[in-house]
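Reviewer 2 asked us to include a model.

Predict the structure of this chain.
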Amino acid sequence: MNINPLYALPNLFTAGSIFLGVMSIMLSSNAMFEGSCWLIVASMVLDGLDGRVARITRTTSKFGVEFDSLADVVSFGVAPAMLLYFYIGGEYGRYGIIVSALFVIFGAIRLARFNIATSESEPNSFIGLPIPSAAVLIVLWVLVDVKYGIFGVEYGYWILVAAFVLSVLMVSNIRYPSFKKIKWNLKTFIVLLIFLAIAFVKPREVFSICMTLYVVYGILRWVVLMVKMFLKKI
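Predicted model (structure tokens):
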């Protein structure tokens, strides 16, 4: 039985994503935090490419889906958790261990839930914060802190608190918008160009603010919906 060699292509991207995630853990353990952050970002690029390559080459498979989820646990679960622990969590003893561990556990639960509920979920939204979004936020907060020293050891617990909130959001029922089916037109293209131009000047600052607002948007939207439901029952 002949197997199409193209089936290996998207899985190579997935394997590359895992490799970069493991390298990130190694750099974190050696206090090379900025390099660790950028490796997680590079891993996200490969993770975004594997699915697209599979669809373009028509080599999607159940194995690829499962392999991709396992890769996400390593690259967007374990790697950011180790970055968080070695960067600031170790200064807070058991609290740092608990927050880092919960980030991985809740991230794995988020992926498992997504895999079994994909067909039932809305095409334009995610139920719970996607694990790549949670991972990139930790990366961006660390990058900003490395550059500006906003938190330091004295206020580093705020990063742990924020990471715990991200962990809970991943397994929550709060919906977050998906941009996979965004309608492209001239106005959208112009806005994107302006955003990329600003981000080119201050990438870590701009993306950190935008991703933080993305998370806050989901929480505020949920609060508004809860208030509306409560008012209807009165």
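DSSP finds eight helices and two strands in the chain. Helices lie at 8-29, 33-56, 62-87, 94-117, 131-148, 157-170, 186-201, 203-233. We have added this to the supplementary material.
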